[in-house]
What does this fold into?
Amino acid sequence: MYLQEKLQSAKYRPSGFDYMRLVLSISVIVSHSFTVTEGAQIAHDLYRSPAGAVLKLIVPAFFVLSGFLVAGSMQRSNTLLTFLGLRILRIYPALIAEVLLSALILGPIVTEIPLSQYFSDPIFTRYLLNATGDVSYNLPGVFLSNPRSGIVNSQLWTVPWELACYSVLALFILGGSRRHRLVALAGFCLTELAFNRGYITGRHQLAIHYGHIPGLFLIQFFLCGLIAYLYKEYIIINRNLFAICLMLSMILTIYVPGGDIILPFPLTYCVVYLGSMNPMRARLLRHVDISYGIYLYGFVIQQFVVWAIPSARTWYLNTLLSVPLSILAGLLSWYGIERHALKLRPGLAMLEAGWLRMRGALLAMAPAPIQTLFLFVHGPAADKAIEESRPIPS
It folds into this structure.
């Protein structure tokens, strides 16, 4: 069976992707439990141990998953305006809420300096810029006695790279990738060549098999997920092939120098294989997506648990306490913020209608060659790939 057939059999909403988002977000908390309780050095040791073969796949798998699901959003969006608007509604409201809660509520509670000094410190103002995607990790006097001293939310480091992925995809859309998937494939190949050339020549000094994940590599994982969606009718779903790709992914992360270069391919297969499964959806996953909230608040909650309960400074106790609290935070984020933000989507449709009218008027005044080129790249007639696209959770 091919991937497209699997998606069609589940009406393009297989529960496997929902489970994967939840499992990966909780896995991030588990992986951080070692560093928040014992310091950064243990993370380096873990990444060099056999356990690192699994730990290093968590964040890349998240980006593969994001690329695959966002590809569906790209196909359903009539214009770049709608696509970027949907991304903004999905990312920024919850991010802004997390930043404000950390800076205005958590910080004043746990800071070791007077509040007047806390709010006047430039570090406090700098932290608020996290809401824009310009990331910093410190608040004045916060978590200074923790093993990960002074770090409020290190997990925000991926936000700028997620935004970079959307920017690259926006360029693909301008190039006509919605109508001509070869544009996306060509762009993916060019970015692969550019990034891997930098790695081979030594410009990418941080590699996954050394325990770090360069942001540029995350863009490759994202784009690999995108290509898997666009060419889903060619991907065979096979259990034996999944087992081979999973083993190969773990070997490449730790035992093969330079294995990062080809890692996106087997890992992408593992992600789409598991995501295309369709077990019965748990009640917690029906009509909600708490994975983003868990991801945003998990590290902050772990640091707070370490600060509030010094006797629980072991990885397993930190996990047992932080996971339920993070799930609760994810639920509150979804019902309190994210769900309401997504209700603004009809407003995007109105903006899009106005933009389409203006674009049509401008196009009518353009020279004939420009009109022909525009219609070829962004023409109203959907190609086969778009016609076969169905809703997938974005």
In short: The two ends are 24 Å apart (CA to CA).
